[in-house]
């Protein structure tokens, strides 16, 4: 505990603005999607766009305030501890978010698809889907008219393998960067951080290539039945998290150039690197359960 | 709760970072103060309770008699759905978060919540989330009408357009809950005063620590399941559609993996509150403090492996059925420990029966009755008869209304003097209690009967043999509903007038919160108190 | 005004149908009686525990009150009792779990059935297909609208009556294969202790063996949309001879129906018939006046389909529209009914296209 008094941050306009932003985003997104699906025009995209503007303004301003206050030495060690707790539990919540999708994947593979194909305790269901047999990856769906299955799947030993190597390396490089920071080797810190970002960007690029191939050549789409659905949800949300992580790493790099972080105090950097490791671990799960098995 | 001896360092107000409340509206919009935010949560919850309650009264009015009188079946379904959602996510959860905001920093000797700005953010998301939800009532096709459990495909392929608004509303509401929970965990783990070890923490704080963990674990799963719905609705995926290899039952598994812990999220803080109140008015320390802690922890852990007891009739394989039946029954053991400990606390105590204690005693009795019917529901073959009938409705209202809601009222009466600095008006408190107690039982007890006799839930009209008990329940609902006006009156009066309350307020009260003046200063502790 | 008065009067007449059933039905099968016994067993155990717990509590409340001079004692822990009241409930629970598991295993044993019936839930009716016979029909609520709208006195089986009940033989093991066509429904007959969800795309099995002939009533118990409350289940259990006779009758009727389809109908005949079909089958969604429910069910009045090309109109009625509540009616309605209802929709409800279609032109 630093000193004998507690530190309580001052009032701030950011939270209420952030709430308004979330409200606009939610309402705008809902309006956009409903009108899109119903083939109507609506002001949804404008509301959504405004939401994005406000949220970017908030993110920018809030972090700026935060950084300023830290620079002024207002942040106590205790607050630092709270931030750590906050980030850890936030990552835990993200883990649970992915758990829902992994759970869905396990469920369809062990239960619903075999049942529909006539296997297992509830195989009578096959009565309703004559001619359907259970396979995984599910290329032939029970109703090929509504959900035309994919012609083929992504070969795990090409791009996905490369991507696995890329991401694992990036976890290593970000750790090197962290060590460099702790030893106050600024040049090394910047170099390793830049390397991490490079790896991440290449990963994202390959992921985009893979999606393109899936859609244009393999017929592997969101509409291709449950294989496509789980594939894109898991890899898609992961990719989205990589994108976020990359952005955060990039901000860290800019701050490093600005001379931020000391060997002792660099929570922001650490938080980002935790996040990065988390994204990495999720990928390993994906690689095993989505691509290989 | 462990008794704590405190060495309270002078609360000083001259510290540069510790100013009083800001002036005007800005105080509420920009605040970082846990008390302000706690109050906002509580007021918000009360508003939602009224809205949800009025919807319940519409339901009960329609069900007063067989036949369709007041509302269309489709609107009835919207009322049922919105009532469930608003009560669960708008009334009970925010009320507990509000209490946590007010009391946890005081109970553990912290100046405020760990992340005060995020705290404000968590709160202010809620009005927007519920505005979105309520606005769906005015959309073409109407509000969500698929039950608070929104089973696919009724909530996907067959849903009204407003379902997309509902989904995004749930998303931001979930974000609010997760942030709120993170804040509470961080506060408890990181902000305790020196000497306040985990096993000295007051029970309310303990139950919230565990509840917050549950929240962080399951709210993301809810977000996941609504996201899958969104994809099924707008992007052609087939998570919940057998034609593409998915399964409507998958929805239920994911939903209840969230949903069951969710119902314990609505009761564990209540256990905490009751464990604070009973020792105070029995003037005797809580019996079996450590077994109370372990019991709450076991309930929380078990809650992750019982979800499919809501799905006994979906046709799970036999082993699944048996597993979930046993796991669910097991929960009776730790819950029993809690009930027995409360009784043992009263045994050979020196009891008085002020309003909070009356609500607490009613809680113990009526919650236990609700728990018993829960146990009956857990018996899978018998649940085939109970499932989706009013017996289930009776069960969960017993654990939720005289359970969660009574505990919230008990807490409000218990801590109100600490918040406002005014002693309670006992007479009015007792009037409120007795009206509520009688009303609640007239409303929900007959539901057991019609349920057993075969009345399904979520129906706007019913066969003649259910008529009498239904009109009885409707009368009870209006009694209970309107007696809440007394509650509102009590609160308003207490804020405005009343005898000056002492720091300790209640003769038998122990704990840090009772060592600071009433009303508690804007920043309770600016330097950490010492707890031995 | 008269409506208000009737309503007010009927409020006063509430207790007219007094019936105070407070417990579960014992039912009419071996399984249902097992379930009932199980229910009573747990119930009495809970009552006993309740009496013990609340007994001690109320004793304390009366005995140890401050106003009577009670002084609090200081103990607050006792490992022995704490272990005891953890272990005893645990043992009681095992006592409940054993018979429960046995009953469950009986219920899950669907082997060696004599009759197989596929039950399909539709928004808001049931379809029964006898897999070994050529019998296939729908079962709709038959309570008149006037009773529901309080314009007419309610009969004793209010909301629990259908046009075509499910008919099964007594003393035979009947296996149900339960599924759904649109959303999830749940097929429940309390007297059989059979409640199984009907899940679209999957099949759940259940079975029943009833000793006594009789009529047993239940309801759909899974929220399935607007008319979830109006989707009863009625099962008629017939003695074996009566059942055989019923099966023969059904087959004869089917032959007679087939002849109808090749007949020529006049516009008036089609309109008259169509009105009946519309009210029974379509009005639930599209409403009696054809206005639909905005945002949920489109209006027929002025609908581009119902006033456009007749082929498109027939197509949507015959094949439905995938992914919406508009189901394919080819299985539910005869060619005559479809021809009639299409003609009706085009020339009534505010539409006046003027054309008509003959049953023989309906391609199923
Ligand atoms: C606060 C909320 C809350 C709480 C605490 C509980 C507590 C319990 N619930 Fe309940 N439940 C709900 C809220 C809650 N429930 C809701 C909202 C639904 C419906 C959802 C929906 O479908 O909309 C529901 C539905 C529900 C079902 C599904 C029913 C169905 O749809 O068919 C089941 C089935 O097992 C169940 C079981 C239990 C059990 C075993 C407990 C146990 O935790 C109870 C334990 C307590 C006791 C048993 C009493 C005290 C113990 C003793 C005195 C010890 C000795 C006792 C014995 C040995 C018997 N609940
Ligand atoms: C914590 C949660 C909670 C609470 C507190 C309540 C409170 C009440 N509930 Fe409900 N209920 C649920 C959670 C809750 N419920 C859930 C989850 C469902 C399932 C939904 C589903 O099936 O999807 C449900 C379903 C449900 C049904 C079944 C509907 C159906 O199946 O179709 C019924 C029927 O009677 C009902 C009744 C009531 C009543 C009369 C109250 C009363 O206790 C309410 C009393 C409160 C008030 C009336 C408001 C306060 C009053 C004032 C402030 C005074 C001013 C008021 C006026 C001027 C009118 N509830
Ligand atoms: Cu069909 Cu409810
Ligand atoms: Cu549960």
Structural write-up:
With 293 residues, chain A is mainly α. Chain A has helices at 14-37, 44-71, 77-116, 159-182, 186-218, 226-257, 267-292. The N and C termini of chain A lie far apart (50 Å). With 532 residues, chain B is mainly alpha-helical. Chain B has 2 domains: 24-233, Cytochrome C Oxidase, Chain A (Up-down Bundle), CATH 1.20.210; 267-522, Cytochrome C Oxidase, Chain A (Up-down Bundle). A two-stranded antiparallel ribbon of chain B has the order 1-2. Residues 1-18 of chain B have low confidence and may be disordered. Chain C is 39% helix and 16% strand. With 364 residues, chain C is α+β, with helices and mostly antiparallel strands. In chain C, 37% of the residues are buried. Chain C starts with a helix and ends in a 17-residue tail after the last helix. The interface between A and C is small, with 11 and 9 residues. The structure holds heme-A (2 copies), dinuclear copper ion (CUA) and copper (II) ion (CU). Residues 121, 124, 185, 220, 222-224, 228, 231 of chain C line the site of dinuclear copper ion (CUA).
Please sum up the structure shown:
The complex is a heterotrimer of chains A (293), B (532) and C (364). Chain A is 71% helix and 0% strand.
Task: Please supply descriptive tags for the structure shown above.
heterotrimer, A: 293 residues, mainly alpha, Helix Hairpins, Four Helix Bundle (Hemerythrin (Met), subunit A), 2 domains, 7 helices, 0% strand, B: 532 residues, Cytochrome C Oxidase, Chain A, two-stranded antiparallel sheet, 1% strand, disordered N terminus, binds heme-A, binds dinuclear copper ion, binds copper (II) ion
């Amino acid at each position: 505990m630093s000193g004998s008094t507690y530190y309580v941050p001052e009032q701030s306009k950011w939270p209420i603005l952030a709430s308004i932003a979330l409200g606009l985003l939610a309402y705008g997104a809902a309006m956009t999607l409903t009108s899109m699906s119903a083939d109507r025009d609506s002001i949804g995209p404008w509301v959504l766009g405004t939401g994005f503007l406000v949220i970017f303004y908030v993110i920018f301003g809030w972090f700026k305030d935060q950084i300023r206050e830290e620079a002024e030495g207002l942040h106590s060690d205790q607050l630092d501890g709270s931030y750590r707790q906050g980030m850890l539990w936030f990552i835990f919540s993200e883990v649970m978010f992915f758990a829902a999708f992994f759970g869905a994947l396990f469920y369809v593979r062990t239960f619903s698809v075999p049942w529909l194909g006539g296997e297992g305790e509830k195989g009578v269901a096959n009565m309703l889907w004559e001619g359907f047999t259970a396979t995984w990856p599910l290329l032939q769906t029970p109703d090929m008219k509504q959900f035309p299955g994919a012609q083929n799947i992504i070969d795990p030993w090409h791009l996905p393998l490369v991507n696995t190597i890329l991401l694992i390396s990036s976890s290593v490089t970000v750790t090197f960067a962290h060590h460099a920071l702790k030893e106050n080797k600024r040049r090394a810190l910047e170099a390793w951080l830049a390397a991490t970002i490079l790896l991440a960007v290449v990963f994202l690029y390959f992921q985009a290539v893979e999606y393109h191939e899936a859609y244009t050549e393999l017929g592997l789409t969101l509409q291709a039945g449950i294989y496509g659905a789980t594939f894109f949800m898991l890899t898609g949300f992961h990719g989205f998290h990589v994108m976020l992580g990359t952005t955060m790493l990039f901000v860290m790099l800019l701050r490093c150039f600005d001379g931020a972080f000391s060997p002792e105090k660099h929570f922001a950097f650490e938080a980002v690197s935790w996040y990065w490791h988390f994204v990495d671990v999720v990928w390993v799960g994906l690689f095993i359960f989505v691509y290989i098995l | 709760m462990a008794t704590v001896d405190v060495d309270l360092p002078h609360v000083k107000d001259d510290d540069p970072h510790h100013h009083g409340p800001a002036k005007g509206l800005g105080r509420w919009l920009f605040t970082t103060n846990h008390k302000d935010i706690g109050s906002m949560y509580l007021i918000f919850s009360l508003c939602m309770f009224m809205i949800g309650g009025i919807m319940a009264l519409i339901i009960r009015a329609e069900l007063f008699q067989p036949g369709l009188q007041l509302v269309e079946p489709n609107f009835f379904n919207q009322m049922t759905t919105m009532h469930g959602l608003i009560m669960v996510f708008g009334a009970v959860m925010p009320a507990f978060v509000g209490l946590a905001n007010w009391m946890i920093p005081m109970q553990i000797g912290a100046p405020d919540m760990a992340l005060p700005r995020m705290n404000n953010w968590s709160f202010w998301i809620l009005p927007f989330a519920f505005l979105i939800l309520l606005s769906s009532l005015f959309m073409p096709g109407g509000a969500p009408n698929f039950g608070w459990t929104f089973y696919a495909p009724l909530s996907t392929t067959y849903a009204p357009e407003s379902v997309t608004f509902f989904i995004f509303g749930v998303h931001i509401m979930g974000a609010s809950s997760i942030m709120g929970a993170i804040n509470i965990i961080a506060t408890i783990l990181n902000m305790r005063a020196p000497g306040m070890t985990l096993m000295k923490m007051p029970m309310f704080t303990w139950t919230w620590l565990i509840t917050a963990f549950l929240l962080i674990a399951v709210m993301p799963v809810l977000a996941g399941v609504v996201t899958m719905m969104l994809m099924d609705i707008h992007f052609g995926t087939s998570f919940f559609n057998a034609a593409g290899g998915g399964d409507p039952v998958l929805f239920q598994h994911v939903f209840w993996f969230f949903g069951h812990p969710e119902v314990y999220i609505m009761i564990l803080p209540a256990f905490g509150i009751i464990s604070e109140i009973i020792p105070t008015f029995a003037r005797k320390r809580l019996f079996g403090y450590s077994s109370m802690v372990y019991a709450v922890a076991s309930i929380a852990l078990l809650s992750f492996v019982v979800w499919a007891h809501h799905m006994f009739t979906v046709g799970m394989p036999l082993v699944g059925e048996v597993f979930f039946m046993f796991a669910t029954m097991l929960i009776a053991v730790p819950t029993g420990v809690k009930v027995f400990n409360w009784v043992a606390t009263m045994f050979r105590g020196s009891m008085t029966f002020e309003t909070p204690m009356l609500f607490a005693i009613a809680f113990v009795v009526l919650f236990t009755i609700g728990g018993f019917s829960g146990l009956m529901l857990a018996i899978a073959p018998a649940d085939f008869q109970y499932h989706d009938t009013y017996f289930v409705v009776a069960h969960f209202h017993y654990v939720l209304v005289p359970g969660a809601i009574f505990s919230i009222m008990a807490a409000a009466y218990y801590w109100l003097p600490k918040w406002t600095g005014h002693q309670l008006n006992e007479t009015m408190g007792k009037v409120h209690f007795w009206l509520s107690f009688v009303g609640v039982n007239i409303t929900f007890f007959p539901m057991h009967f019609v349920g057993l006799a075969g009345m399904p839930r979520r129906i706007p009209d019913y066969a003649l043999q259910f008529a009498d008990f239904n009109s009885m329940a409707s009368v009870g609902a209006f009694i209970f509903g309107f007696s809440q006006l007394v509650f509102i009156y009590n609160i308003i009066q207490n804020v405005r007038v009343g005898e000056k309350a002492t720091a300790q307020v209640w003769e038998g009260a122990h704990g840090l919160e009772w060592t600071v003046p009433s009303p508690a200063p804007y920043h309770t502790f600016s330097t950490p108190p010492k707890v031995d | 005004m008269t409506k208000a008065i009737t309503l007010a009067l009927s409020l006063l007449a509430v207790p007219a149908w007094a019936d105070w059933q407070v417990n579960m039905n014992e039912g009419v099968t071996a399984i249902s009686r097992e379930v009932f016994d199980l229910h009573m067993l747990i119930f009495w155990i809970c009552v006993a525990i309740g009496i013990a717990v609340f007994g001690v509590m109320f004793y304390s409340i009366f005995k140890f009150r401050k106003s009577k001079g009670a002084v609090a004692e200081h103990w607050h822990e006792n490992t022995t009792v704490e272990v005891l009241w953890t272990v005893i409930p645990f043992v009681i629970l095992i006592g409940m779990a054993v018979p429960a598991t046995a009953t469950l295993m009986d219920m899950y044993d669907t082997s060696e059935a004599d009759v197989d019936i596929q039950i399909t839930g539709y928004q808001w009716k049931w379809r029964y297909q006898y897999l070994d016979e050529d019998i296939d029909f729908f079962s709709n609520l038959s309570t008149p609208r006037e009773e529901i709208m309080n314009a007419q006195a309610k009969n004793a089986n209010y909301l629990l009556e259908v046009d075509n009940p499910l008919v099964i033989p007594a003393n035979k093991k009947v296996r149900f294969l339960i599924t759904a066509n649109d959303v999830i429904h749940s097929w429940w007959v309390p007297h059989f202790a059979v409640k199984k969800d009907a899940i679209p795309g999957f099949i759940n099995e259940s079975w029943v063996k009833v000793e006594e002939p009789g009529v047993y009533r239940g309801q759909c118990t899974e929220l399935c949309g607007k008319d979830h409350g109006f989707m009863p289940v009625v099962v008629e259990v017939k003695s074996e001879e009566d059942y055989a006779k019923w099966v023969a009758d059904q087959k004869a009727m089917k032959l007679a129906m087939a002849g109808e389809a090749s007949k020529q109908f006049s516009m008036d005949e089609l309109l008259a018939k169509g009105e009946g079909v519309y009210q029974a089958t379509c009005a639930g969604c599209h409403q009696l006046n054809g206005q639909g429910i905005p945002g949920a069910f489109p209006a027929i009045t002025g609908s581009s389909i119902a006033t456009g090309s007749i082929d498109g109109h027939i197509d949507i009625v015959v094949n439905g529209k995938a992914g919406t509540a508009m189901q394919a009616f080819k299985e539910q309605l005869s060619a005559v009914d479809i021809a009639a209802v299409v003609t009706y929709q085009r020339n009534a409800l505010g539409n006046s296209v003027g054309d008509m279609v003959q049953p023989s032109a309906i391609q199923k």
